[in-house]
Design goal:
Elements: H1 38-53, H2 60-79, H3 86-123, E1 126-129, E2 160-165, E3 168-175, H4 183-189, E4 200-211, E5 222-227, E6 233-235, E7 256-266, E8 274-279, E9 285-288
Antiparallel strand pairs: 1-2, 2-3, 3-4, 4-7, 5-6, 5-8, 8-9
Helix pairs in contact: 1-2, 1-3, 2-3
Length: about 290
Amino acid sequence: MSYDPASVPPPPPAPSPYAAPAQPAGPAGAPPTGRVNGLGIAALAVGAVGLVVAFVPFIGALGGFLGFVGLVLGIIGLVLKGRKKGLAIAGTIVSGVALIASIVMIFVYTASYINAFNDAIESGPSVVDEAPPAEGEEEAEGIEPGGVGSRENPAPIGSTVSIEAITGAAWEVSLGAPTLNATDLVKAASEYNPDPAAGNQYAIVPATITNVGEANGSPFELTFEFVDADGRSYTGGYVSMEGQLADVDELLPGASATGNVVIEIPSAGAEAGTWAVAHIMGDPIYFAAQ
């Protein structure tokens, strides 16, 4: 048998002195390290905000919405593979609590407002500081306690009345001597003030208001109307004139302000009408026309 050098395989190449050393193999079967769960972080953040907002009146429903969003994000974060589950679990729990708290607080606030509203209706308007009768004038007879301020028995000009809001007495209001025909005064205040409609005239009544609530208040919380003898109501329109009550900014608790209320009223029988003052959510209190 002859020897064929070509049939002998070449020796393996020598290892390069510059080759990187082989890395030791890790333990068999070790699970991969989980990555940060971004959805879990988002669920926790959204749920925490929703939990705080759930206890804020008027916007508590927003807390419920945020809780629902956080709950969805947390559940998605739980089913993702290869992600850490701790934050997703915490976000799901916090968001669920926020959703439940929001629903509960909605029912609580609604019941409280309904009860307060019913109490305000039952309490009705009341006069807290009736002006004394003028010298030589007898005090009105036949007025039952609590009757002063109704349309049938309006409070006299100069009286101070308490205006009831849903949360209780919020304002004290007093009307000064009105000018039932103030058309010339209104027209002189600005050439742009429109003429009153046929058969109507402008009337001006000065009003002094005092904030007796516990928070800042605005005169826009009060409404002023003129009610004629037939029961038709007339509200103030916009005229350009200095010294109007509408120009007064917010009042701090205990602060007072005086300004004019301008209303276009019917000329016929103006003296037989009444002024009506009310909180935007309450019943009116009536003053005599003059």
